[in-house]
Amino acid sequence: MSDLFPPFAPDPDEPRKRLFKPVPFRVIVPNIITLIALCLGLTAIRLAFEGRYEPAVIAIVAAAFLDGVDGRVARLLKGTSRFGAELDSLADFVNFGVTPALILYSFLLNELKALGWIAVLVFAIAMALRLARFNVMLDDPHRPEWKKNFFTGMPAPAGALTSMLPLYLSFLGVSVGAAAAPIALVYLLGLAFLMVSTIPVYSGKTIGLKVPRQWVLPIFVLSVAAFGLLVSFPFEMLTVITVCFLGSIPFSVMRYRQLARADAMQAAEARQAPSEQETPLA
Fold it and tell me: What global pTM score does this model have?
């Protein structure tokens, strides 16, 4: 019986098999940026519980900036991955759904007790549903090219930054007391509706693809001026940006409808063209 199982000595020179395949560093970099943004969102919650609302708002603004950077860095480095996309969605839910809602509850909505908490829940759940729909629509191969210039519903970072308008006004000296809590509740619910709605919001992804030469230097000057104003007067600029963004939604809807009508007319002409080219048989 011992001959059936002879002793086996492994070859010491045989290379060991790796349990995991190495991952290129260019794939890791975008995920690191996403995790830093997630840390900022979680830190904002702690700052709000400590009553430090101004740095909490700045942390969310920084997280929104990093959210816009990580995807572009991934495409630039050719480091996109399914793992990164899922991690980005989870970070967006925490940073832009949970964190702003909790900050608003700690700042003002707690005056309404249960009603304020219900508004917080509605906003956070609306953000989760909006992100889930966004991920599903990315996999739609039949989506027209022109629709990629629009978001379906309010995007997650915009929803977070606009939701903190009561805090911006408070930092500017506007009295935001218990009497303003019902207004803030209605405002937050309205933003939740915009996020889960099918209202088209211009994404601006095509801005800057082709810039006329005569506009290059003015754009540089305006960009530097905008950055300087944002650094010097952050809450004034955030208030202006919020109001301008909300005011631009009707124009986005009108532009979307114009493009939809033009696309429908082109599709109708394309269907009629083959029938007009057919000749009847003699």
Answer: 0.83
